[in-house]
């Protein structure tokens, strides 16, 4: 009976952990199957342990090319969306101007629109303009849909800033530029960083908009999509696992450093 | 300027103040200009082009012309209404499942995780770091015929029930509606959990104590205190899940069959393979209208208009 009671008392915890398991399970499968030696073209059934794919992650034609293309697009899309988005966020929080409502909806709408709708309409524009589909059309599309997310992230941070800090800087004879560079920007930095990270992740992992507007250019998600039809090389799992491990390590290291700093500041 | 001429100095000083202030008045416009221009040209303008494409007729060889052919909308709906209904049904079911699965986890992180909170949060976001297509393909392995999941479900006769309901077929999960909904739920869970967590975390823990002091049972406390206060998270979470899920075609294509095609697949095929631009544009417009309608009604109903 006491087992039942503990079960009931911890129902939320158990349900939550089950959900967590549901979310992590595919990553575990991806990791395990990066050590598989599949028979045939598809890597869906376990055969035997092998390190072949790990020894030669670029051993599949076009895989690493698509990866580096995705990284390049993601970097430039992040830079573009972060600069434009941060400017908009500052304007929205700090200034009064006309047509604020219209501008707010223009920023909100891309986030409230199914991706396939934006993808299709953007392709219509490019076709009408006779634009050559490829790197530039993908980059334009990525900056467009990342922009709103950066605005939202930076806006939240700038809104919670204490305006007295900037007043204090001005009282201490800092010019507008100096105030911005030495006070405003450092305080807004976490918001800008969060926006940039989000933009990078969204751009790097985007499939639907890219698929419509890339022409014959192949990004990493498009390579994976194509391989689901042609045959999935084990190297895909290797790349997926490597990205996962690197990202989790970076996040955990960041946490650790932040914790240590906090405890040092406490002393 | 001598000391005796003090009064005229005053307007000069005022002008000096006003000059930067007019420049200052232009600052927001300069800040907004590039980004807003980008959105106007690459988000709003394409919508106009698409609207015009949807009422054009013609062929790829002869070119398309605007003929105000509104029948395209009617024909598109008549041909593809099953895919539309399926999209809304699958997206709706996945959203509900995300809420049911995500709420306990968000609650766990907000109130029960203690010093594990950051770790669990990292684990929630961590799947994002592997391309979602690779993770969706992993479900092919997990749900494969003869795999552990299907075997267990078969032994428990769960698949008999779901097959009777039409969710699965022939004692398999892959290539059935259940697999697609499972994939959709999985893919959009983080979009549900993060807003839920944000709104739960803001709740003052003393409110729970107060409810307890007033002899509320944990269930009553949840119903009367926690749930109402977490409503903004529920609303934005369901929207962030439902909107992308309704237009998604990745899960339907990778985990489903031709019987589980969603409207996103149709738009993609019409646009990229069949090259029937008017039909594709009309379908995409209908999808947009339906989603905006659902979102507006939902936001009005839930009474949280200031959520974004």
Q: Do you know the CATH topology of the largest domain in chain A?
A: MetI-like fold
- Contiguous helical run count of chain B: 13
Number of strands of chain B: 2
Overall CATH class of the largest domain in chain B: Mainly Alpha
Quote the CATH topology of the largest domain in chain B: MetI-like fold
Using only C-alpha atoms, the radius of gyration of chain A works out to 23 Å
Distance between the termini of chain B: 55 Å
> How many structurally independent domains of chain B?
2
H/E order of the elements of chain A?
HHHHHHHHHHHH
Structural class of chain B comes to: mainly alpha
Structural class of chain A: mainly alpha
The biggest sheet of chain A amounts to: none
Provide structural commentary.
The complex is a heterodimer of chains A (267) and B (308). With 267 residues, chain A is an all-alpha fold. Chain A folds into two domains: 2-52, no CATH class; 62-232, Orthogonal Bundle (MetI-like fold), CATH 1.10.3720. Chain A has helices at 2-9, 11-32, 52-55, 63-94, 100-108, 115-129, 135-159, 163-171, 176-204, 208-213, 220-230, 234-266. In chain A, helix 4 crosses helix 11 (220-230) and helix 8 runs antiparallel to helix 9 (176-204). Chain A is globular, with a radius of gyration of 23 Å. Chain B is mostly helical and 308 residues long. Chain B folds into two domains: 3-54; 74-302, MetI-like (MetI-like fold, Orthogonal Bundle), CATH 1.10.3720.10. In chain B, 76% of the residues lie in helices and 3% in strands. Chain B contains 13 helices and two strands. Chain B has a two-stranded antiparallel sheet. Residues 1-18 of chain B have low confidence and may be disordered. The chains are: A mainly alpha (267), B mainly alpha (308). At the A-B interface, helix 2, helix 4, helix 5, helix 6 and helix 7 of A face helix 1, helix 2, helix 3, helix 4 and helix 7 of B.
């Amino acid at each position: 009976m006491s087992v039942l009671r503990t079960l009931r008392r911890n129902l939320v915890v158990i349900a939550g952990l089950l959900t967590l398991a549901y979310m992590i399970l595919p990553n575990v499968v991806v990791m395990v199957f990066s050590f598989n030696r599949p028979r045939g073209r598809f890597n869906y059934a376990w055969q035997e342990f092998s390190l072949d794919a790990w020894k030669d992650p670029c051993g599949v034609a076009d895989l690493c090319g698509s990866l580096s293309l995705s990284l390049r697009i993601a970097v430039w899309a992040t830079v573009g969306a972060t600069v434009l988005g941060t400017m908009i966020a500052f304007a929205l929080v700090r200034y009064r101007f006309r047509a604020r409502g219209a501008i707010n909806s223009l920023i909100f709408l891309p986030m409230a629109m199914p991706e396939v709708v934006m993808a299709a309409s953007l392709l219509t524009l490019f076709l009408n303009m006779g634009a050559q589909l490829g790197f530039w059309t993908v980059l334009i599309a990525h900056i467009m849909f990342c922009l709103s997310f950066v605005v939202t992230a930076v806006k939240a941070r700038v809104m919670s800033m204490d305006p007295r800090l900037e007043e204090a800087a001005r009282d201490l004879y800092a010019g507008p530029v100096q105030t911005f560079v030495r006070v405003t920007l450092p305080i807004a930095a976490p918001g800008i960083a969060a926006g940039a990270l989000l933009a990078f992740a969204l751009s790097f992992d985007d499939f639907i908009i890219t698929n419509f507007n890339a022409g014959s250019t192949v990004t990493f998600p498009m390579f994976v999509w194509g391989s689901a039809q042609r045959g999935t090389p084990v190297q895909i799992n290797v790349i997926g696992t490597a990205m996962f491990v690197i990202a989790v390590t970076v996040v955990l290291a960041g946490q650790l450093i932040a914790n240590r700093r906090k405890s040092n500041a406490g002393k | 300027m001598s000391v005796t001429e003090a009064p005229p100095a005053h307007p000069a000083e005022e002008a000096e103040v006003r000059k930067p202030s007019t420049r200052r008045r232009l600052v927001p416009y300069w800040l907004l200009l590039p980004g807003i221009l980008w959105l106007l040209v690459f988000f709003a303008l394409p919508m106009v082009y698409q609207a015009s494409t949807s009422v054009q007729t013609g062929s790829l060889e002869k070119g398309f012309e605007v003929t105000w052919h509104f029948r395209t909308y009617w024909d598109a709906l008549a041909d593809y209404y099953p895919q539309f209904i399926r999209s809304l049904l699958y997206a709706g079911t996945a959203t509900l499942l995300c809420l049911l699965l995500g709420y306990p986890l968000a609650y766990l992180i907000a109130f029960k995780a203690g010093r594990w909170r950051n770790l669990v949060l990292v684990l929630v976001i961590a799947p994002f770091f592997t391309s979602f297509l690779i993770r969706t393909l992993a479900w092919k392995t997990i749900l494969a015929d003869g795999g552990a999941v299907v075997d267990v479900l078969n032994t428990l006769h769960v698949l008999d029930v779901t097959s009777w309901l039409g969710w699965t077929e022939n004692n398999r999960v892959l290539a059935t509606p259940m697999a697609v909904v499972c994939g959709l739920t999985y893919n959009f869970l983080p979009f549900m959990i993060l807003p839920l967590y944000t709104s739960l975390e803001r709740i003052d823990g003393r409110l729970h104590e107060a409810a307890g002091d007033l002899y509320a049972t944990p269930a009553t406390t949840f119903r009367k205190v926690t749930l109402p206060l977490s409503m903004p998270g529920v609303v934005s979470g369901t929207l962030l899940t439902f909107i992308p899920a309704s237009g998604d075609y990745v899960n339907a294509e990778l985990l489903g069959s031709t019987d589980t095609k969603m409207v996103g697949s149709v738009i993609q095929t019409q646009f990229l393979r069949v090259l029937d631009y008017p039909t594709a544009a009309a379908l995409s417009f209908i999808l947009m209208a339906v989603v905006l309608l659902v979102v507006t009604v939902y936001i009005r109903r839930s009474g949280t208009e200031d959520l974004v």
